[in-house]
Amino acid sequence: MTQPLLSVENLQLSFADESVIKGISFTINPGETFALVGESGSGKSLAALSVLRLQPTQATLQADAIQLGDIDILRTPESELCQVRGQRIAMIFQDPMSSLNPVMTIGQQIAETIQLHFDLIREQCTQKVLLLLEQVGIPDAARRISEYPHQLSGGQRQRVMIAIALAGDPDLLIADEPTTALDVTIQAQILELLKDIQKQTGMALWLISHDLALVSNMADRVAVMQSGKIVENADNKSIFKQPKHRYTQTLLNALPNIHHQAEQKEANTTDLLKVIDFKVYYPIRKGLFKRTVDHVRAVDGVNFTLAEGQTLALVGESGCGKTTLGKGLLSLIPSTAGRVDFQGIDLSTLSREQLRIQRAAMQIVFQDPFAAMNPRLYVLDIIAEGMRTLHADLKLEEIIEQVTELLNQVGLDESALYRYPHEFSGGQRQRICIARALAVKPKLIVCDEPTSALDVSVQKQIIDLLKSLQKSQGISYLFITHDLAVVAEIADQVAVMYEGKIVEQGSVDQVLRNAEHPYTQKLLSAVPILQC
Amino acid sequence: MIILWTDALIFVLISVITFVVFSLRKKQHFVRPWQKVSQNRTALVSLVFLLCFLFVGVLDSVHFKPSDGLNKEVISLLDYWASPLREHQEKSYSAPFSVYAYSKELIATEHGASVWGYPRLKYAGSHLKDVIAEKTSDILLKAFIGFIKGTSIIVLIFGGYHFLRKLPLGSNKAVNTVFSALLFLLAGSYMLIDLSSFYHVMGTDKVGEDVFYQAIKSIRTGLVIGTLTTLIMLPLAVLFGILAGFFRGWVDDVIQYIYTTLNSIPGVLLIAASILMVQVYMANHQEQFTSLVARADMRLLFLCLILGVTSWTGLCRLLRAETLKLREMEYVQAARALGVPRYMILYRHILPNVMHIVLISIVLDFSALVLAEAVLSYVNIGVDPTTYSWGNMINGARLEMARDPIVWWSLLASFIFMFSLVLAANLFADAVRDAFDPRRKPS
Questions:
Q1: Mutation site for B-interface testing, chosen from A342, A359, A364, A376 by largest number of B Cβ within 10 Å
Q2: Are strands A60-62 and A6-14 parallel, antiparallel or unpaired?
Q3: Measured between beta carbons, which residues in chain B are less than 8 angstroms from residue A333?
Q4: Which of B338, B349, B439 comes nearest A389 by C-beta?
Q5: CB distance from A433 to chain B under 8 Å?
Q6: Minimum distance, in Å, between the CA of residue A151 and any CA atom of chain B
Q7: Which residues in chain A are contacts of B335 at CB distance < 8 A?
Q8: Strand, helix or coil for residue A253
Q9: Cα→Cα distances B313→B40, B255, B264, B360, B433, Å
Q10: Neighboring chain A residues of B349 at a CB cutoff of 8 Å
Q11: Nearest residue to A316 via CA among A102, A138, A453, A479
């Protein structure tokens, strides 16, 4: 049996009063891919930082052993450890934008790492940077070397991050959610790249992720982490085929399935929302007098109809204009052209005051439940805001009664009334946001990526909640998402958006199983599917 | 009783605050944070200090003409109670607790000859027969008596409070803290009061005036400049800042234009111009400003006004930037989707979320304004030379520091008072800001 590359025994990490990692042990062999899976807050990122002894200063680290090859990390002085980091272990992070220094060219940033670890003269260094950039698949490397991070796309930035990590020829690469901030098609490319590089250099990869489907495609061995403990640690096949621990089973069950068969609803013919040739352009202004020289066509002529009690999923990658479309429909963003008929009324013919009232029947639920609520208001006031606006004469007792009922509908109780949003978890906050939207009895709710900031198990709960609300109250959803698996779970109709236009539209079965447009096909092939 | 302009404004301010507190005392949103403040010891001690300063300031704002007095000078309640301090005027400099003057002069002895030496002061320590033997013990005794007086009053009130409310002694932490702070303050001030009738505890200045009296009188000036200026500046900054940030477009353009223009005019120039204007006006309308006090007061008021007008731009800019960020927040968009009118969005979602900036900059500005007053006095466009202010004291100390032997007590006295006021305000504002931020856990 080979000597493991990294072995960790009984690693513990605690902040002043609570322990975050409660004694985890694992080994990583040379050349293998080890995945640590868990929901947010389970301590998986902290575990990676602790192995490098980069844990937050106020935390206390304890372990029986952290052994990297022949180096005992626990007993190595900080000065020598700096050589270990980067040269033996390198790390890439989730957000490539904030990990790169915006005022340095990417060439400088890669060269900086090379010079830290190798004694090279300048020309050699530049050669090596070019080599690395080519290795991570950045085209036209000689020109790109002098560009700044903002000139690169998200995927390219992550490639640069990988190049920096590779600069020290590490034995182990820790990838902390390397693709979470990226689109599916880019995610597929980056994962492919990591696999390639691993094959070339024979380094080990420690992948940290919340995405079980992705992990099942990448890892040799998988450890599942739940609130600071590793509950299951086995090789890829056995963990996904026969999960032993209950938590692993729950996670696997919660995973949205792209092959989900939508239950057939009665076809409803009453159109609730009809959008004709809808356009939102942003002017590009230049010069002293801010003359409009051109437009960014965020939404460029979109047509669709949504029937009562149905769900239309709007799918597309970031920047395709799907969020702009959602906000534009609600007149939160001024539209450039087009017509929106809601309940048979053309919204553009209404006066501002009429629109304000009419708009209450169209509500929106946002992606980030942390930013979607005023942190200085009680939950009661947050939910009651819409009611108070529409019915100014409501008494406080009536409001409290109605808000309590709404809270019950979304699975919370009246103890939430006089608490602030920050006291709730992400899933609970999203429930409150849904309650706020429900408070004005809307006909249509625009759900703008309502589950993408949440963990899988919570995501399932929210989707189930949305479905049951639809059943009981007949609300229509315009469900904006980038996750095709979620679409299969909730939607009746799908519209695929690409560069401001809808390129394919139809029922879920039709679009997901027999995609016609090449872009939809590309999107579908990039979605990681659980391998078992 | 005579009410000067700044007096009236102070009274209005205090009654508005009292009214607001009274009308909000049942609202959950306001009661809870303040309960949090009451658990913070630093904040409570700072509050007691601030209230003490305020108390002195208010006492000093009740002006009247004494009926029995020979001269027709307008004095305040504080002056009336501190009469010995005010009237014990020596010839020139004397060090704290000294009974001799600070510089030598010719003294006529009993035998008719003159001796070159340090003369005895007229008031300080005049009750002592044998200075060398008695002075130290006399000071200690007087301090001790003062200490006992202050302590016993506090102990009586403390005991009485617990007796009336039927509480066991020391059961409420907040009450304990308040009373310890009061004990410290009252024992200290009684010591100073008892001593200052017989000595100059902080020495005297060039014309022989008691420095301690000057420092106390400066409290009102400091408070007036700090609060009235902020009061003028605040509505301008908050209103323009959030309007510009929220509505953007032409509203933003106009407001930005105004504050950029205003900012590019040197502030000192504006202040000098307006102070000169006031002086010219007063010279032309002498019948309206009959007393020295009224004239000085008018000048103080105008100083506050012009300082307020020149200093709102910084805060306005900050608030505009913050509002620009907030208006894109999803809860603002959600409110718009709910059909909440725009003024309600401003009031309910934007304003509370910029308040922390407002609070911090009020306190910082308050400190800066007290200091700015000192600088303005330096170029002679600050408060009236007859108005007592820390600025004037520091300005005077400029020459005293260059003197040999050095006269350090004016500077030290104004420093101590200014320091404790600004520090207390800072600590208190910090605690209030933390308490009103719901994201912060009580610690």
A1: A376
A2: antiparallel
A3: none
A4: B338
A5: yes
A6: 24
A7: 385
A8: helix
A9: 33, 10, 11, 15, 22
A10: 374
A11: A479
Do B350 and B343 contact (CB within 8 A), yes or no? no
Q: Which two tokens stand for residue B303?
A: 């100083």
In 3D, which of A201, A166, A37 has the Cα closest to residue A89?
A: A166
Q: Does A360 touch chain B (CB under 8 A)?
A: yes
- Backbone φ/ψ region at A500: left (φ over 0), alpha (ψ -120 to 50), beta: left
Sequence-distant (≥ 6) Cβ neighbours of residue B259 within 8 angstroms: B240, B312, B313, B316, B317
Cβ-nearest to A422 among B348, B352, B439: B439
B226/B427 Cα distance (integer angstroms): 16
Per-residue pLDDT of chain B in tens (443 residues, 90 and over written 9) = 778 888 888 899 899 889 988 888 877 777 888 888 888 889 999 999 999 999 999 998 888 887 765 566 788 888 888 887 888 888 888 888 888 888 888 888 778 788 888 888 888 877 877 777 788 888 898 889 989 988 898 888 888 888 888 777 777 788 888 888 888 888 888 888 888 888 888 888 888 888 999 999 999 998 898 888 888 899 999 999 999 999 988 999 999 999 999 989 888 888 888 888 988 998 898 888 877 888 888 889 989 999 898 889 989 999 999 999 998 888 998 888 888 888 989 998 999 888 888 888 887 788 788 778 878 887 778 888 888 888 888 888 888 888 878 888 888 998 899 889 889 988 988 888 888 777 665 44
Task: Give residue A257's Cα distance to chain centre.
Answer: 17
A389 and B344 within 8 Å at the Cβ level: the answer is: yes
Which helix (H) or strand (E) segment holds residue A293: the answer is strand A291-307
Nearest to A497 by CA among A518, A478, A477, A520: A520
B402 Cα distance to chain centroid = 28
- For chain B, the first-to-last Cα distance in angstroms comes to 49
Residue A25: count of CB within 10 angstroms of its CB: 15
Facing residue for A360 by CB, picked from B331, B338, B439: B338
Q: Please write the tens of the pLDDT for every residue from A266-291.
A: 666 678 888 888 988 888 877 767 77
Q: Is B341 on the interface with A (CB under 8 A)?
A: yes
Residue A429 touches partner B, C-beta closer than 8 Å: no
The tokens describing B32, both together, are 């809870």
CA dist A169 to A113, A138, A195, B213, Å? 11, 19, 16, 75
CA A279 to chain B, closest CA, distance in angstroms equals 20
